[in-house]
Amino acid sequence: MSLLEISGVNKTFGGLKALDDVNLSVREGTVHAIIGPNGAGKSTLLNAIIGKLIPDNGTVTFNGEDIVGHKPHEINQAGISRVFQTPEIFGELSIMENMMIPLLAHRDGAFKMNPWKRSDDEADLIDKAHHFLDDVNLWGKKDTIAGSLSRGDKRRLELAMCLSQDPKLLLLDEPTAGMARADTNNTIDLLKQIASRGITMAIIEHDMHVVFSLAERISVLAQGHVIVEGTPEEIKVDPKVREAYLGGAEV
Amino acid sequence: MDAILLQILNGLDKGGAYALIALGLTLIFGTLGVVNFAHGALFMLGAFCAVSLNKMMTASVKVKDESVTFFEAFKEVPYLELWLGETGTTLISWSVPLSILLAIPVMLFIGLAMERGLIRHFYRRPHADQILVTFGLAIVLQEIVKASFGANPHPQAVPEMFSGTANVGALFGLGDNIVYPIWRLVYFFFSMSIIGMVFAFLQFTTFGMVVRAGMADRETVQLLGINITKRFSIVFGLAAVVSGLAGLMYTPILPPDYHIGMDFLVLSFVVVVVGGMGSLPGAVLAGFLLGILQSFASMNEVKSVLPGIDQIIIYLIAMVVLLVRPRGLLGRKGVMED
Amino acid sequence: MNTVATKKKDNLMVLIFAAVVLSMPVWLQPFGAAYPDLMQKFVIFGLFAVGFNILFGQTGYLSFGHAAFIGVGSYATVWVFKLYTMNIVPAILFGVLVSGVFALVIGFICLRRTGIYFSILTLALAQMSYNLAYSVLTPITNGETGLQLSLDDPRAWDAAQVQGEGIPATNFFGMEMSAWDGLFGFYVCAAVLILGFYISVRITRSSFGSMLRGIKTNQQRMTYTGLNTRPYALSAFVISGMYAGLAGSLMAAVDPLAGAERMQWTASGEVVLMTILGGVGTLIGPVLGAAVIKYFENIFSAINTSVLADFYSFLPDGLIDIFVGVSALFVGKGWHLTLGLMFMLVVIFLPGGIMEGIDRIKNRFAKKPQQD
């Protein structure tokens, strides 16, 4: 069964067609990679899914419900979390507080007035934060101001924040961009572990090593259009993919 | 019909002042990305250029008053009259237009000094800091003027040929009911020509082209290797001169006091927001629009239906515009949205 | 800043705060500031700044119109005095309620925009309220004269009590605010400040407080974390508006009149300065900033040229005039010049305010032993 179903989505900026009749379906419990050359419309597609921009037409169905036109926070509450290309965290707050916010959002919904109870009395949420921070090796730094972390730690923190919301679908925008090889391998292991828990993932990635280590399905986007969709083995041998990458040194 | 035309005329001089200040605010904002709360103070400083020149020209000496024959009487006679006779008197009556010559270098200097000395260090600071430091500067400038010129307004006269009223109605063949102070017409044409000059400067010179490109996309222009920062400080000086002249020429219409700048600043901000942050034509359009609407709102017929509307019309329009069209009338997407 | 706040530490902080505030009449003696009028100002403006900090310091929205809520609070309070009772409790409650409703309306409009648009909108709306108070709303505000009590006010609930000569005084269940040479009024205000401070500590440590700081730090992440930021920001706006209204009500309670000049943009600018001078986003900073500014305002405004001449009397004759002339610019009526300069200096050199300054000094001392 497909968890996310994108059909006939178009988006034009000025005269430029960023998304051209995109059809894509992410099956529940799989890791689905979206690859393609620069400017192919990958980030635009993610933005259309999370409600940052509204497609000109077409439908985006998540868990059987059309989410086009819904506000970003409603889409997140429906179960979609996104890790951004440059980590979007609360830079002035401690790691612990960075974790508390998504945990509260997950438990209390989009808005709940709770100005009296101390956050440090929320024992169950703190336990959860502990668990997810342990996963990314950040529990020891829980009182550090997030903005002072290294880029890799920021990414891991953002990942932990998204995971703590128990998302049905996790969107990752180049989770290993700018990472050293060893770091990349760690991240791959971490993502594999997450996938093994049954969380559905859609990944945008340039690094083919990452893509082929993780993905069960791959969609190739070129000039705003999905040119091929298939298993990694199918994609590897597809001539259209090589063509799209102009010689495709990476493939 | 006559009444409507008269109200439009009434709004033009005020609209001109709003437009000129808003133009300067927008130029600075568009190029430097700085929200200048001290911009009203520049308007005020311009006005006090006129006051200062008038004070200098009327520096006077006590002489015996010959017209009084019963006893020894003295009167104050300005040196200029003593030395030049009639010509001196005429010169003094021209003090406001003459002070333009003084104000251009003075305001340019003040503008450059402000940019070099203070604003420059705030380009990379958060907008809140820019607002706060220019707000503090506005208070300082205003208090300095208060300490040197006192708290009372300083009425300024206009040259004789521009005093009195013009029968505008007759000019358009609309009957004799529409009479209008000449100086206000002068102010309108003055503001239009300054606006015209600024636009021509931006449109037809290479310098202006770079500035416009910088307003549209600062990073790209910098990547081309053009030193924007240097040009932008000249823009700041230019904006200071424009606001200064706007204040200077306004002195015969509204006697300036030390807080005239703040009064105009709040309104000019509203003008900029209504016109669209970062849009020069928007600033001009909204300036005149709000000036005219304000003068309509102060008609007795309107006030009797909606009491107090003249006090709040500008703010009401600003609220409606922001709620319906958050970017303002001619605003571009993405300007200062975070 | 990096130390972790615990319940114990917070309770201790509130206790110390309460002790310091309540003992003001004692420890302000050597500063010559221990008279009730001035101490009431410290406390009331401190409360104003604490509330303002919830919006500006925690949520990151810079409002330039918060003085409007002071005005609304005072007018509402004086009207209760006039119509119903001179007891300050219902009057203050009503003042807070009305300013809360007013803040809800203003906030609903202004919070449709963020950043500088928000600042300009609040400035414009406050200026509009100020203009209205002077014009159309004169029946409510009594225009330039200001709203005052008069002998023939109805005071419906007080009618049963025996009325003495003249206008009765504002009281707390019969205890007049001017009792104990005015000190009673001060203690009432101080109690309210301590309560207000405690509430702000609780808000800061609550999950609601985390949400506000989240909005300040990264509004985008908030949205994509499933949070609807607008009601959170609006709540912060209303809470801080109610604090300002409370401050306005207290002003009316100790001195029962209300004037539109309290609503001017300069008053709004003053609370911004108090907050940044003390330390934006810190708990104690705003109260400290308010006290420092009100203290210096009091000292500087009182200085005149003869005081200056005395002060410089050790100098040679010619120099005295020059020094007195220059210094006179900054004192007496020139206090606002000093205020403006302070504003600039703090923003330029100490954006974190006094609290940051204290931290810096602490760190310097803390580091020394390691170097040795």
Instruction: Find the count of extended strands of chain C (DSSP E, 2+ residues).
Output: 4
Query: Which architecture of the largest domain in chain A per CATH?
Result: 3-Layer(aba) Sandwich
N to C succession of SSEs of chain A = EEEHEEHEHHHEHEHEEHH
Structure class of chain C: mainly alpha
Query: Kindly state the mean pLDDT of chain A as a whole number?
Result: 89
The CATH H-level homologous superfamily of the largest domain in chain A: P-loop containing nucleotide triphosphate hydrolases
- Here the CATH topology of the largest domain in chain A equals Rossmann fold
Give the strand order of the largest sheet of chain C, numbering strands 1, 2, ... along the chain: 1-4
Radius of gyration of chain A (Å): 19 Å
Helix share bin of chain A: 25-40%
Overall domain count of chain C: 2
Beta percentage of chain C is under 5%
Uncertain segments of chain C: none
Q: Could you give the distance between the termini of chain A?
A: 29 Å
Based on the model shown, name its key terms.
heterotrimer; A: 251 residues; alpha/beta; Rossmann fold; 36% helix; C: 372 residues; mainly alpha; two-stranded antiparallel ribbon; two-stranded antiparallel sheet; globular
